[in-house]
Amino acid sequence: MTRLRVLLGLLTVLVVGILGLFLSFYARGYRFDGQTLRFKPSGLLVVKSDPSGAQVFVNGELSTATDTTLSLAPGTYDVSIRKEGFHPWNKRLVIEKEVVTEAIASLFRVAPSLSSVTFSGVVNPVISADGTRIAYATPPLREDSQKGGLWVIETVNLPIGFARDPRRVTDGDLTAADWQFSPDGREILVSLGASVFLLDSSTLTPQARRVNVAARKEIILAEWEKERNTRLSSQIKILPDELVDILQRKVSSIVFSPDETKILYTASGSATIRENLIKPLPGSSSQKEERDIKNGRTYVYDIKEDRNFLIDEGPEAARQLSWFPTSKHLVLSETGKITIIDYDGTNRQLVYSGSYVSPHAYPFGSTSRLLILTNLGADTTPNLYSLTLK
After folding, report:
1. CA–CA separation, 339 and 347 (whole Å)
2. Residue 37 above 60 pLDDT?
3. Alpha-carbon gap, residue 30 to 182, rounded angstroms
4. Interhelix angle for 241-249 vs 217-236, to 10°?
5. Counting Cβ atoms within 10 Å, is residue 120 exposed (0-12), middle (13-18) or buried (19+)?
6. What local confidence, expressed as pLDDT, does residue 134 receive?
7. Residue 35 region, left (φ>0) first, then alpha (ψ -120 to 50), else beta?
8. What pairs with residue 136 in β-bridges?
9. Using one digit for the tens of pLDDT, what is the confidence trace for 244-260?
10. How far is it, in rounded angstroms, from Cα 144 to Cα 148?
11. What is the CATH number of domain 2-106?
12. Would you list the domain boundaries of the chain?
């Protein structure tokens, strides 16, 4: 009886050990080959899409549907994620053994819908540095003079109970004025001829109460520039010293992604970003990168993965790049078309082609809409329209 118990105990330990070993190999991406009776190394591909329920093609063959995990032998694969009525997502991915690779696809409608957000005409829309507000002028109308003035609209989702309707900051005819936001977006500096006004972007300041601060304009702008530099210094101080030096000496503009894990920048000189500045992460992007930066070209540097991607080869007057709220995509606004690009420069999806005032296209409210300035081809003052992408 004692021997039987010992044997049963040893058998239990053996079975548990074999099962544990099998699960360990399975979790690391190995799969058992019934023909060779051996475990073969593989990698895991996690496939997700927004919206979900899309088809997943691997090397041109239908494999499964999102959201799922695929076990693939190490190698290079062409992965396509498709859903009826949406632009396909395509990317070439490198699968490594015992490594989990993610393919997260944001799919956008082939035929997006437009709906008007403003109705009285929009002149010179200007977005705040953090992308949360847009200021614009509305020309005064003979039948309704109350519509004229400077207005601000929020571009982010607000808590329940807070309206996102445009609010007027000041009245009067400001169609010939210029304005800019403070670094935090709370103030707007309006220049109208020889007069300069500093306005609160969240409240109404009637014409009669506006104060001319023309004598302090340069001081205000200097303070704002100092504030911008201080904020930028705090953002880049976590980066390796070599990269900070390049960003300070060889870059003309720096824009952090909303989650501050990536940097969109345009080079003002040539430099080389040394490899392995940051310890590489398993499953990092396998897309082609360029660490030799050249003057005038625009790049995205991924802080977490220490990878640098070429986005655009040269600036143009009617071209603008900005971050999409996902922090994984960029909005490229060009004459007659708007494209959303993966942050690594791949998978360019043309989401709008038609009449609009370039480059006025801004993320609006969520990851499913853009705000564009258009008159839909008519001979009228353009308005802001919501472009629904999903």
Report:
1. 10
2. no
3. 55
4. 150
5. middle
6. 96
7. alpha
8. 151
9. 999 999 998 899 999 99
10. 8
11. 2.60.40
12. 2-106, 126-216, 237-388
Give me the residue label for tokens 């990269």: 243
Q: What is the pTM of this model?
A: 0.83
Structure tokens at 119: 């109705």
pLDDT tens for 160-183 read: 444 568 999 999 999 999 999 999
**Distances from the Cα of 201 to the Cα of 1, 181, 189, 197, 285, angstroms:** 86, 8, 10, 12, 41
- Distance, CA of 388 to CA of 250 (rounded, Å): 38
Q: Where would I find the H helices in 271-327?
A: none
Report how far Cα 77 is from the mean position of its chain's Cα atoms.
Answer: 25
Residue range 125-129: average pLDDT? Answer: 94
Q: What is the pLDDT of residues 179-226, one digit of tens each?
A: 999 999 999 999 999 999 999 999 999 999 999 999 999 999 999 999
- Which of the listed CATH numbers 2.50.20, 1.10.150, 2.40.128, 2.30.30 matches domain 237-388? 2.40.128
Check: CB of residue 309 under 8 Å from CB of residue 348.
no
Cα(174)–Cα(197) distance, integer angstroms: 12
